[in-house]
Amino acid sequence: MTRDEFETFAHRLADAAAAATLPHFRSALAVENKIGGDDGSAEAFDPVTVADRAAEQAIRELIFETYPDHGLHGEEFGIVPGASVYEWVIDPIDGTRSFVSGVPLWTTIIGLRRNGVPLYGLVDQPYVGDRFWGGEGSAFTRCRDGAPRQIRTRACASLAEATMMTTAPAAISGPGERARYETVERQVRLARYGADGYAYCLLAAGQIDLVIESGLQAYDVVGLIPVIEAAGGVFTSWSGDDAHYGGTVVAAGDPRVHAAALEALNA
């Protein structure tokens, strides 16, 4: 699949997802908890709505109509193996907590892997009108129906100069992870929270310098990695290995601040 073919089709997928999600945003919709029981803690609440499922279903139908041999991995309906080297990895609403709170920082993340490696990605925030996409050396954004413009990460030589984002420090909850994360946060110039996948788009567009998170899944990252790398950034695990399947992640716009973050996380 060429980049042009991906872009044309991924825009169709994003439009179909937006048609499914936007009628429900800031509406009185029911919210289910995927985890089941609720002990009152944030960790015991993993929301899902009819909008999540409708968006993924719309994406799935288009993919299987157009590329019946491709595989698909979606957050809501799981994995369908394919006969092709290509697999679509979909998060229909990344940031469902923002969605159900009426906060327009949720996104639809559409990724394509070839032989297991992230190749292209597209991330859409349809309420605001921001869309980001990229792969194979170039990344772009557009707002509403405006003309696409190429994006690049910005220079940042040190943690002391960096603006960092994470969805929530409380979500960094693996053994010892919170203390390691806080070692970095104490050194950055500015830390901001709450943007989920949108934060990575801001990094690719040169608005921030660093994103650090943990506990992610493949559908959280496959559509983000190609955009960030094509914009000039770096995306790895906390150990510096590839993060194609999620887990702990460090995304940086400048290799120097990425190296500094890894050093602090592993001190």
From TrEMBL:
Pathway: Amino-acid biosynthesis; L-histidine biosynthesis; L-histidine from 5-phospho-alpha-D-ribose 1-diphosphate: step 8/9
Enzyme class, broadest EC rank: hydrolase
Alphabetic keyword roster: Amino-acid biosynthesis, Histidine biosynthesis, Hydrolase, Magnesium, Metal-binding
Enzymatic reactions: L-histidinol phosphate + H2O = L-histidinol + phosphate
Pfam families: Inositol_P
EC number: 3.1.3.15
Ranges in a coiled coil: none
Binding site for Mg(2+) 1: E75, D91, D94
Residues that coordinate or bind Mg(2+) 2: I93, D220
Signal peptide residues on this chain, from the entry's feature table: none
GO BP term, example: signal transduction
GO molecular function annotation: histidinol-phosphatase activity; inositol monophosphate 1-phosphatase activity; metal ion binding
Cofactor(s) of this protein: Mg(2+)
InterPro entries: His_9_proposed (IPR011809), Inositol_monoP_metal-BS (IPR020583), Inositol_monophosphatase-like (IPR000760)
PANTHER family membership: INOSITOL MONOPHOSPHATASE, INOSITOL-1-MONOPHOSPHATASE-RELATED
Family stated for the protein in its record: Belongs to the inositol monophosphatase superfamily.
UniProt name for this protein: Histidinol-phosphatase
